[in-house]
Amino acid sequence: MKITLRPYSHDTSRWHVDIRLMNPCNTDEEIRKRKVAPAGMSEAQARAWGERQVPKIIRKVLGGDAPAIQEVANTRLKPKKISTPTPDVADAMTLAVFHAGRFDPEHVRLQKPATQESYEHNFRKHVLPQLGALPLATIDAGSILAFRARLRESLAATTVNLVLAQLRTALNYAVKVGLLAESPKVEKLRRPKRAPKTVLSAVEAERLLEAAAKIGPQTELICLLGLHAGLRCSELCALHWSDIDLEDGTMLVRHNSYRGVTQTPKGTIGRLALSVRLRRALAEHRRREPVGPLVLYRRSHHTEHEWKPHTRGSIGSALHRAQNAAGLPKTGPHLLRHTLLTRLADLGASVYEIQAVARHSEFKTTQTYIHQQQAGLAREAVKLLDRALAPEGSPGKAMAKVAKTGENDS
To answer: Are 235 and 265 in contact (CB under 8 A)?
Structure first.
């Protein structure tokens, strides 16, 4: 195999790549292809790009991708792997070129749609404008610290850390594919302690359900699936009747819908037990509206009065109508999930029971709800202290004695 490079006549910033190789099935025949490398590559990068085209050329010329052809391409024509990048490649390839040519198509596009959108937004808005023109080899801990400081001027710590985490993933991938010898250290910001999550009290939750029932049975069902099963909004939209066993009183959460694309849910796939009230509401809904395979559908002038699957916006609108009717402030659907998990913690459920309901993949996520439970336990402890410090002979003293000994006043 022989690869010859020269500046492309129509655009001297690009390379004309002339590839010559023997036909693996006929050694007397030569295969020759002329290609133009993508813009922004150095000579070494253009040569490496040309070498990666060889298996594709063989498959195209020989009319297929049979295993024998692929084996020949891999064993005879594939360039040798190098453990460390050549200086030319490391010095010349910028972060922007690496992102467009390698990281985005080979890593980002393999993620879930929501993750792809997050990468696309953060790289386009934050990373590439500030670091995109830098060669990969020049991005070090110092430039990342300066980048972090500039981000912090306009973004919250949580957002800064997300951008830094995605940048670190990109640099680690550059190491993986041999374009960097090692990845620079990426230090995240120390996040401030989070305030306790705002949740509905038991009285407010019941008010919400009563208001939702007056609006309509489907609105009530949406609220019940959040308050009694802890489903996320995307899981509500993708819930199938085939996942619900009314006879057994269980529900398998295994689907997630993001902008019409069905995928696996966040966290873990899990089977939940249905509360009596939720089970009854599902049974009544199934008798009343057997529209299709999904549990929830919507129909309005937005859908031209045809039954369509719910979206995040339509679920939020249904919840807002119920919140207005109940005299509660407008919030997102995730409030219902937080309310359920916090209430379970307040009722004394163990961290393992809460994790089973929440389907958290990480234990530390579940522990935040246990921390909220500790605040309630602290209040009970203070009550015991107040009773113990009450004047001698007062009812408070007697109550403290009961709390200590477990005796009953009778």
So the answer is: yes
* 191 falls within a domain: no
pLDDT per residue as tens digits for the range 255-274: 988 877 788 888 888 899 99
pLDDT of 366 strictly over 90: no
Beta bridge partners of 19: 3, 33
- Domain check: are 144 and 8 in the same one? no
- Would you tell me the crossing angle of helices 217-227 and 276-288 to the nearest 10 degrees? 150
315 and 222 Cβ atoms separated by less than 8 Å: yes
Integer Cα distance of 398 and 410 in angstroms: 12
Does residue 188 lie within any of the structural domains? no
Total domains in the chain come to 4
Q: What's the DSSP call for residue 100?
A: I
Domain that holds residue 32: 2-80
Q: Decide the pairing of beta strands 256-258 and 261-263.
A: antiparallel
What is the C-alpha separation between 6 and 12, in angstroms, rounded?
Answer: 9
pTM, whole model, 2 decimals? Answer: 0.61
